[in-house]
Amino acid sequence: MKRPGRRNAMAEAGRRVACWALACGVLAQPDAARAQFAGTLGLDSVDRYRGTGTTDVGPVLRASAMADATAGPLGGAYGGVAGLWRTRDGGLASADAMIGWSGRLADLPALSTLSPGWGWDAALHTTHYGQASREDFSEAMAGVLGPGWALRTWFAPRYFGASTHALYTELNASHALDEHWHVFGHAGWLHYGDAARYQPRLPDRVDTLLGLGGSWSRWDLRLSRDGIVAGHAPDIEARQRRAAWILGASVAF
């Protein structure tokens, strides 16, 4: 997500992909509640975040890890940490931490007839920026999970440390083509709250991402294209608003 303004927060915003690529990706399938520990190490050709680029130059290295408790009738708790590093200078762009609760809707007595592929998710997430701690912020999330897709809404009361709150709603989906290949997609809507006095409220915008991924053993390769498809982003430089290709690779452990 992106705060109002053109500060280095945008340059480091892509780091949250590391956290949610693991935690939300793993938990998008309710069956993952049985897992105890998971981690990823990956490299992306360019630093992108929800339809826009950042001012970081070159590829970025990401690492993340999470653990979850055994799920019961009301689901199970999980927690995770993640980091994003710039490869050009080895500097830490940001660090993330989160804690949440996820479970199957079918485990609730009133919804016991639902398919086990349906679930729910809720979490608290916080981000620390390596070079701009004044822009640290936290947010709350609530979501519904279905077979192959997840719908989540994020609320930040002080978006990137500013006085403005923001709401981001996203739909993520994936479909297997065969044993190794799958397609995936994302659509997100960013809504800003009222701005400070004498400042106009930033307009809403919609971003999308479409891609193709392949998996072999513990390795994953991805090629995707993302960009803003509706609305305007005056808080971001023109070159960062252009759509772009992303090539990434990661290994799970």
Task: Describe what is shown at a glance.
This protein is mostly beta strands and 253 residues long. Helix content is 7%, strand content 52%. 38% of the residues are buried.
* Strand fraction: over 45%
Kindly state the percentage of residues in helix: under 10%
Task: Specify the structural class.
Answer: mainly beta
What kind of assembly state do the chains in view correspond to?
Answer: single chain
Total number of β-strand segments? 14
Q: What is the averaged pLDDT score?
A: 82
Main pleated-sheet profile: 12 strands, antiparallel, barrel
User: How far is it from the N-terminal to the C-terminal residue, by CA?
Assistant: 28 Å
Output the radius of gyration.
Answer: 18 Å
CATH architecture: Beta Barrel
Find the CATH topology. Answer: Porin
- CATH class type: Mainly Beta
The largest sheet has its strands arranged as 1-4-5-6-7-8-9-10-11-12-13-14
How many alpha or pi helices? 2
User: How would you describe the shape?
Assistant: globular
User: Which regions are unreliable across 5 or more consecutive residues at pLDDT < 50?
Assistant: 1-33
CATH superfamily: monomeric porin ompg
How many domains? 1
Describe this structure in words.
By secondary structure, the protein is mainly beta. The chain has a single domain (8-252), classed as Porin (Beta Barrel), CATH 2.40.160. It has 2 helices and 14 strands, in the order H-H-E-E-E-E-E-E-E-E-E-E-E-E-E-E. The chain has helices at 8-12, 16-27; strands at 37-44, 48-49, 52-53, 60-68, 76-86, 92-104, 119-129, 137-146, 149-156, 166-176, 181-192, 205-216, 219-231, 244-252. The strands form 2 sheets. Strands 1-4-5-6-7-8-9-10-11-12-13-14 form a 12-stranded antiparallel β-barrel. A two-stranded antiparallel ribbon has the order 2-3. Strand 7 and strand 8 form a beta hairpin. It starts with 7 loop residues before the first helix and ends with a strand. Residues 1-33 have low confidence and may be disordered.
